[in-house]
Amino acid sequence: MFLVTPVLRAIQNVAVFTWDFGLEIVNVVTPKRKVGHVTPEGEPGAGGNWPEYIAPKEGDSRCCCPALNAMANHGIISRDGKNIKFSEMPHKLNATYNFAPSFTFFVPNLAAHMLKKSFSKDTFDLAEIDLHNGIEHDASLTREDTGIVASQAKPHVPFIKELLASASGKDEDGNALLTPKDISEYSAKRRVEARATNPDFSLKLAHKLVGSSNASGFLTIFGGRVDDIESILVEERIPDGWESRIRKRKGLTFAAFNPVVYKVERGIDEKKYKAKVAAEAAATVADLKVEGGEDDVADEEVAAKR
Q1: Which of 36, 72, 164, 172 could make an S-S bridge to 81, C-beta 3.0–4.6 Å?
Q2: Enclosing domain of residue 281
Q3: Is residue 130 situated within a structural domain?
């Protein structure tokens, strides 16, 4: 059973993060896994051979997390997304995405605690992960806010397309890559727009960090590669031949992941985005004054104020 008192949880957390630091030391001093051998032999996806993708059908349970939904769509966890054991998730997350054992122990335990369930004994449906302001939060990069669309089971494709179109990086083969700066800038846009359109909007610091953590998975596990990210976000499908871009022997630790999260969150500047929008509106009005009549300018100024 998950440790229930604050003191015992604190002790457990210290133990987990000490373990995590040790795993990162092992990562530093040991060779990386070979390309093509990141997913362990005997596990789903070994050698890039993922189980058949089947899109969810009516009655299946899905959630706000594309990575978990993809695991269900490929049958790595129950295809209907129901009655999943918390205790089976650490191994499956580690084998599928190469998150470190410390990482995959901590996150399902945290989810069980938030849902007031036992990590060792209980099960969950994917939809339960959508507990608002638990793991699910406003200003998501892939979903509309719960206050706008109650179900978080399906992605909002226009958001995803806009995010991917903002990719400014390139790999050595010229393929498009998302960068931390791209994600920070789009996160700022989403926060400003969600705050303006959702009357029930809320986003405390903890949930800002959850949002930046979720987005940082694009940069780490998926290496920022737009083609792969599009598949996992739009179809919630693991690409054929794919393996985690994290080749470290013990997987992605918190010690390596948290600096990426911090960089993304630190780069989110809502004031800068608002100033950019205001400047663009002012430039549009100025152009109309040159090209059009006063009626057009007045209409544009009214629209900008809205």
Answers
A1: 72
A2: 274-306
A3: yes
Region of poorest pLDDT, from 143-152, 184-193, 215-224, 297-306: 297-306
Please give the Cα distance from 200 to 126 (Å, whole number).
Answer: 24
Looking at the structure, tell me whether residues 203 and 286 fall in a common domain. Answer: no
Total number of residues shown for the chain: 306
Q: Are 282 and 152 within one domain? A: no
Rounded-to-integer distance, Cα 143 and Cα 145, Å: 6
1 in any annotated domain: no
The Cα 139–Cα 133 span in angstroms is 11
Q: CA angle, 199 as apex, 150 and 208 as ends, to 5°?
A: 75
B/e letters for 42-52, b = 16+ CB within 10 Å, e = fewer, are eebbbeeebee
Q: pTM of the predicted model, to two decimals?
A: 0.90
pLDDT in tens, 95-136: 999 999 999 999 999 999 999 999 999 999 999 999 999 889
